[in-house]
């Protein structure tokens, strides 16, 4: 039996496996710039975050209908369930779809169809986190929040993703204030490729409850002490860090040192179709690479529920 766990850092568009990409391309008569799944897999050799994002956004062309989003989500939930996931807080990128002519309603209704069946079908409770693309304007983020207003009952939190360098959290101060006023909770990617100061901004300017990645907090000892003291969860994604060359090898990953420093770490898959594993695979890989003992693994699993947006009673049931 795999360890029960929650997944808190998962981009639903990053669960698009090559086989499903080709099936959806055929269903929607979309031409992919790859001959077959093998050729596509060979393109999963990334140099940095941007080289991944280029492929990630281009493959989204196959996602067009409510059925597509429902099928994508159901496929993720089935894989996650097999690896012990009991609760998933799922990011989606509406701007990447709206700008291709796929309306917010198509995206959210498709995701929601799969999520509504998830507890029954897969034993996984879920939340949705709507991400703003930080390499687009603050105005575009605000328009996205506006477009989400009819669907807010489906959305728990806002997040911030895409190309981090030169797109600091402070650019999105107003839209985060507006989101909070609508009752949405707040997370943001920070300190993946961007500096430790972006982690500070995410906390102090945006008021996030959790930091996605947060790895580069390690460059600022005072910040590490604060994150530990305030028990701010970090949603780490070790396989992603290796594939996007944020760190050289998994053996070099600072996860164990971060836990030693008292940081509240969780382990997640980020974009599992692209980075070589789902969250159970990730647990297995870090256990091997860093020689983590059972107690450490249980702590990571426990943290994943404690850092989730589940209410206390739900959290106990999920564990
Ligand atoms: N970082 C930033 N944006 C993203 C990622 C990531 O790892 N995956 C999907 N969007
Ligand atoms: Zn991410």
Automatic annotation (TrEMBL):
Its EC number is 3.5.4.2. Substrate binds at residue 271. Zn(2+) binds at residues 9, 11, 189, 270. Its cofactor is Zn(2+). SUPFAM superfamilies: Metallo-dependent hydrolases. Catalyzes the hydrolytic deamination of adenine to hypoxanthine. Plays an important role in the purine salvage pathway and in nitrogen catabolism. This is Adenine deaminase. It comes from Streptomyces amakusaensis.
């Amino acid at each position: 039996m795999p360890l029960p766990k929650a997944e808190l850092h998962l981009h639903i568009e990053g669960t698009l496996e090559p086989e499903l990409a080709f099936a959806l391309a055929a269903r929607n008569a979309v031409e992919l710039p790859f001959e077959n799944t093998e050729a596509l897999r060979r393109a999963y050799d990334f140099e940095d975050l941007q080289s991944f994002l280029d492929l990630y956004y281009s493959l989204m062309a196959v996602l067009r209908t409510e059925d597509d989003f429902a099928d994508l989500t159901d496929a993720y939930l089935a894989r996650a369930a097999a690896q012990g996931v009991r609760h998933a807080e799922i990011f989606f990128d509406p701007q990447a779809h709206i700008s291709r002519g796929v309306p917010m309603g198509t995206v959210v209704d498709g995701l929601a169809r799969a999520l509504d069946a998830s507890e029954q079908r897969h034993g996984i409770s879920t939340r949705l986190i709507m991400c703003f693309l930080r390499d687009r304007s603050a105005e575009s983020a605000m328009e996205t929040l506006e477009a989400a207003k009819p669907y807010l009952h489906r959305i728990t939190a806002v997040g911030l993703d895409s190309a981090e360098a030169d797109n600091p959290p402070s650019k999105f101060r107003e839209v985060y204030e507006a989101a909070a006023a609508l009752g949405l909770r707040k997370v943001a990617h920070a300190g993946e490729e961007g500096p430790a100061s972006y982690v500070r901004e995410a906390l102090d300017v945006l008021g996030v409850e959790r930091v996605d990645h947060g790895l580069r907090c390690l460059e600022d000892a005072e910040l590490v002490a604060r994150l530990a003291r305030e028990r701010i969860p970090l949603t780490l994604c070790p396989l992603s860090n290796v594939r996007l060359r944020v760190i050289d090898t998994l053996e070099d990953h600072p996860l164990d040192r971060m836990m030693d420093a008292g940081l509240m770490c969780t382990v997640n898959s980020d974009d599992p179709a692209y980075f070589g594993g789902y969250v159970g695979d990730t647990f297995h890989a870090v256990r091997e690479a860093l020689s983590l003992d059972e107690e450490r693994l249980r702590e990571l699993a426990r943290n994943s529920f404690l850092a989730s947006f589940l209410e206390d009673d739900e959290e106990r049931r999920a564990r």
